[in-house]
Amino acid sequence: MSIENIPEIYLKNKKGSPDLFVYDFKMTSEIVKIKVNLGMNMFSFLQVGKKQVHFAGISVGVNKEQSLLLKKGNWLWTELLDNEAIYNCKLLFFSEKKLQDFLENHTLNQGIRNDEKPFFIIKNDDYILSYLNSLSTISQAPTIFMENLLSIKFEELMLYLLQKYGKPFESYLYSLIVGETSTFKKIVESKVHSNLKLEEIAFLCNISLSTFKRRFSSEYNMAPGKWLLEKRLQKAKEILEQGELKPSDIYLDFGYNNLSNFSIAFKNKFGCNPSQLSRKAY
């Protein structure tokens, strides 16, 4: 799985890295789980389709009713079409300098910080929809005017969101500047019950797969594959014992490509087929 460097791949015809940059992303075929090296903080205004993003310690999914403000870093994301067979997302990138200038001019509580989430969910209300239309109009202006207009529009957007979401949004903005990188164990343990592969978890840790395996063995005194297998099968067992789901409902969630492989691993671990366990729960 290759790594997409964003926004660099959208800046091929531009000199340097601008402080503000808008890009209209459209597609007609689904992109499932790509590695993204996001080099700038970014608004992702989803207009048509669905999007899911795996971060170091958490995941989030949104549809066209919501948009995301995303912190720069290494993330995994999936972009899906909707019933219209199209995906449309307007991306607004901004530099740390632009963010710092805004915070200095419009906020007072510089001690606020919130490092827990690398994203902030925004509701696509009437203002946001109107704002996106105005960005489309700006993109048609001559370059010398577009840069100045975009700077004004960025400040307008930030003021609106600050007024609407208050302290939580202000706190999130400060975390984009002073946020700390999640620890290795926090990332690993947040993905125990996901269906992510070792390579994908290593990517979220921002290290190579070989380095990830060495670091894991040092931290847990066990190979990562064996450790994750045991943790995920134990969780699967707990879910099946509740009697609400069948093995066919959950095997994909725990990293297995087919029900047969899941059943074999489960029986090797617990001495019985998962289907037998789920039947006992009824």
TrEMBL record:
The protein's matches in Pfam families, at most eight in alphabetical order, are given as: ExsA_N (PF22200), HTH_18 (PF12833)
Q: Which InterPro entries match?
A: ExsA-like_N, Homeodomain-like_sf, HTH_AraC
What highest taxon heads this organism's lineage? Bacteria
Domain (HTH araC/xylS-type): give its ranges.
Answer: 182-280
MF terms in GO: DNA-binding transcription factor activity; sequence-specific DNA binding
The protein's matches in SMART domains, at most eight in alphabetical order, are given as: HTH_ARAC (SM00342)
Its keywords, alphabetically, are: DNA-binding, Transcription, Transcription regulation
What protein name does the entry list?
AraC family transcriptional regulator
In its UniProt entry, the species of origin is given as: Flavobacterium pygoscelis
